[in-house]
Automatic annotation (TrEMBL):
Stored PANTHER family: MINI-CHROMOSOME MAINTENANCE COMPLEX-BINDING PROTEIN (PTHR13489)
GO biological process: DNA-templated DNA replication
Keyword annotations of the record: Nucleus
Subcellular location(s) of the protein: Nucleus
GO MF term list: chromatin binding
Name of the protein this chain belongs to: Putative alanine racemase-domain-containing protein
UniProt GO cellular component terms: nucleus
Pfam families linked: MCM_bind
Lineage top rank: taxon: Eukaryota
Record organism: Absidia repens
Length: 478
């Protein structure tokens, strides 16, 4: 992941001319290296400007929250092993903690880091970008850094020959294209067993399980006039503090590529940094500086009474902004800038969450959730888990459309619903209710492997939402 793109640029000699023993000049390529130029003493000032170029220096870290199954699959591949062979990447457990350690979003977790030098257009280098498919020329860290980069003197340097932004199903190179293509046609057969698997973590509650599935399928799909549409941030209420939040984290991490947990305690809020902050021209990371598509589990059930300090208030604001607007503010000495994110949130809370999630559903386990961890769960095989993982990655990145006839049907149904609510003197469905319903329709359709919304799927999504509302009313009524 690109953590800091602000390390500047450096001038380098791209090619140079060198006299051979026979007196003939030969053009030597000098890209992808930090070695000194091998020229004669009387030629030191004779390198023309057209042989000089610039490259960008960035600081990269291993993707925060990368789940164990992804690490196992990635590092077992021959390409990854070959790429890392003979290269000593900076490990967080070594001597350089302090400032460098604060450049990783999850400060207490071990990770690897490296300086990467990019050639060509630097405008495409954005923080939190997940890089992959790279070919690198490597070398150890050296002592030739400028003074402002002295802290990285022990960090290895990689020269990017080629690389690309990892998006969509590109993030799962350990599955074949044939496997991914087959997943869409088999979606209906996979959906039921996946819901059953998720339900075992919620005491057999299949309604909550279905909403969790929809959340795992969500992503920012459209941005219009600064409004991001597609993410489905879910609040699971009635989650007792003695229930095992860890088991929910284990569930999510068994299915997705990246997952991060935030225990919403006073200590976490008051002592952590959720947003990146530039200090002395060095970008220190924040907990929410994560690669797109990361699933964040916020455990609000641990929140107790107490005083929020200035840092705590800022962290809450950052969390709210990320959930509500999919934006993360980067702080600089005299300014601040908002950067786009694409993060999915599941908030666990005893009552309705303090955070502005798009959807709330109360959990109603058929048996104690701690019991479900031991007695009522038959763990799927690795092959079954791989099918579930492919299902999520393929369908969350699948295309989707609403036919004109269905669009008109939805409008007529919404007008009818508002009219009925008015006649019954009930609260009128709002624009936000309609947006939530449209998002539910998209996610429900994709979960069935449908890329075009049908009337039956729309009706199913409406019924699902009505069941959710009835559940919430039931759980809040004395």
């Amino acid at each position: 992941m690109l953590q800091d793109t602000g390390l500047g640029q450096e001038m380098f000699v791209s090619v140079y001319n060198k006299k051979q023993e026979d007196g003939v000049e030969k053009t030597m390529c000098h890209r992808y290296t930090d070695d000194l130029v091998d020229v004669e003493t009387d030629q030191e000032n004779a390198i023309p400007n057209e042989q000089l170029s610039e490259r960008s220096i960035v600081y990269c870290v291993s993707p925060p929250g990368e789940t164990q199954w992804v690490k196992n699959a990635s590092y077992s591949s021959s390409d990854a092993t070959e790429a890392l062979n003979g290269t000593t990447i900076q490990d967080s457990s070594s001597s350089t903690k302090s400032t460098i350690q604060q450049k990783y979003p999850l400060v207490d977790e071990e990770h690897v880091s490296a300086i990467i030098k990019f050639y060509g257009d630097s405008d495409s280098l954005l923080t939190s970008t997940n890089l992959g498919g790279a070919e690198m020329a490597t070398m150890d860290g050296h002592e030739l850094f400028d003074s402002h980069l002295a802290q990285f003197k022990d960090t290895p340097v990689l020269h990017a020959i080629t690389c690309k932004n990892v998006q969509g199903t590109m993030g799962v190179p350990f599955f074949t294209n044939t496997q991914l293509d087959d997943t869409l046609s088999q979606a209906r057969d996979i959906r039921g067993p996946l819901i059953d698997y998720i339900a075992t973590y919620f005491g057999g509650d299949k309604l909550v399980s279905e909403f969790v599935l929809l959340q795992l399928l969500s992503k920012v799909s459209i941005e219009r006039h600064g409004l991001k549409i597609g993410q489905f941030c879910l609040n699971i209420s009635n989650f007792n503090s003695d229930s095992s939040a860890q088991s929910i984290k284990n569930l999510v991490s068994s299915l997705v590529l990246h997952q991060v947990s935030i225990p919403l305690t006073l200590e976490t809020l008051n002592k952590s940094r959720f947003s990146p902050q530039s200090v002395n021209e060095d970008l220190l990371s924040g907990v929410l500086q994560l690669v797109p598509g990361t699933h964040v589990i916020v455990d609000e059930s641990e929140l107790s009474e107490g005083q929020l300090g200035d840092t705590g208030v800022r962290n809450m604001q950052a969390l709210i902004n990320a959930i509500q607007h999919q934006k993360l503010t980067y702080g600089f000495p005299y300014s601040q800038f908002d950067f786009d994110v694409d993060l999915g949130f599941i908030t666990l809370s005893t009552r309705k969450s303090l955070l502005p999630n798009q959807c709330t559903i109360a959990v109603k386990p058929a048996y104690p959730m701690d019991q479900s961890q031991e007695d009522n769960r038959s763990l799927p095989t690795k092959q079954q888990l791989d099918v579930f993982r492919m299902f999520l990655q393929v369908l969350r990145n699948a295309s989707y459309e609403i036919p004109e006839s269905i669009s008109q049907y939805i409008q007529d149904d919404f007008v009818k619903e508002r009219k009925q609510a008015s006649e019954q003197q009930m609260p009128l469905p709002s624009q936000d209710d309609l947006m939530l319903r449209m998002n539910l329709c998209r996610l429900v359709a994709l979960s069935f492997g449908e890329q075009t919304l049908t009337k039956d799927t729309y009706d199913y999504a409406v019924q699902l939402d009505q069941l959710r509302k009835s559940r919430n009313l039931e759980m809040t009524t004395p």
